[in-house]
């Protein structure tokens, strides 16, 4: 399994330590040995024909640079320090990124890759070849085939996704947005079937979209031919965004929660929930479209602006 280390010019001390560690041919030989197996300091000294004290010094420098692990373990003649590799690759970004320039990183999430769901009939999931499992059966929502789902619908409840936080180290998050093709859920379809669809990020409510209906009067641009003409065909491309000054839906401000209040942290998943609130005025369900259904060739997309 790869063990990469990514650095940039803000990691001055770490880069200097690594540079020092890699400047010795002996230490490079130690890294070569540890790529194949874990070794004690005595074993390293024997393989490289150097004094144990020299091997210990080289190991300490590599350990301080974060390139190897050195753990004390009990042995037959007292404790021994067992050394193992910690990194496989080192990437150093030598560009000085201007702090006033914004950039965006995106993550595409298949609509079937939810972690938790609570559905209510009418409900179901399907791919471009047809239904997955049985309609109106919540058991179908947890079949392994769900990861290939291209359309998902429910008359209430929610679906929840875990997104990886791909914000680069040392960058300040300016906004987060989620874009998905979505509409209401009615039996077959009904163009005037309203539904209030709410989005939460890390448990914080980030705005409610009023879907005007469940659309099926025409074919969706990417809806497969196997899909019946009397069923929902497409949705509306809708974007929720949370910025430094509040929440927006399709660039219209709808709430006060800010991106700082979402509690987005390094190495922690970003939890997204989409569904109907129990006390909504219009609990008309929800329907999500993947890139092979509806009018837009995309899945559920998260964008991080930094």
Explain how this protein is built:
- The structure is a single chain.
- The chain is mainly beta.
- Helix content is 14%, strand content 36%.
- The chain has four helices and 20 strands.
- The chain has helices at residues 12-21, 25-36, 41-48, 52-64; strands spanning 4-8, 39-40, 68-75, 78-85, 89-93, 104-109, 116-118, 123-127, 130-131, 151-154, 158-163, 175-183, 195-201, 204-211, 236-243, 246-249, 252-255, 270-275, 286-289, 300-305.
- Helix 1 (12-21) packs antiparallel against helix 4 and helix 3 packs across helix 4.
- It is elongated, with a radius of gyration of 27 Å.
- The model has no long low-confidence stretch (mean pLDDT 93).
Instruction: Report the structural category.
Output: mainly beta
Low-confidence stretches: none
Rounded Rg: 27 Å
Q: What order do the SSEs take from the amino end to the carboxyl end, as H and E? A: EHHEHHEEEEEEEEEEEEEEEEEE
Binned, the helix content reads 10-25%
Enumerate how many helices there are, as a single number.
4
Q: Given the C-alpha coordinates, what overall shape results? A: elongated
What is the average of the pLDDT values? 93
Strand percent estimate: 35-45%
| Straight-line distance between termini | 29 Å
Main beta sheet: strand number and arrangement? 10 strands, antiparallel
How many strands in all? 20
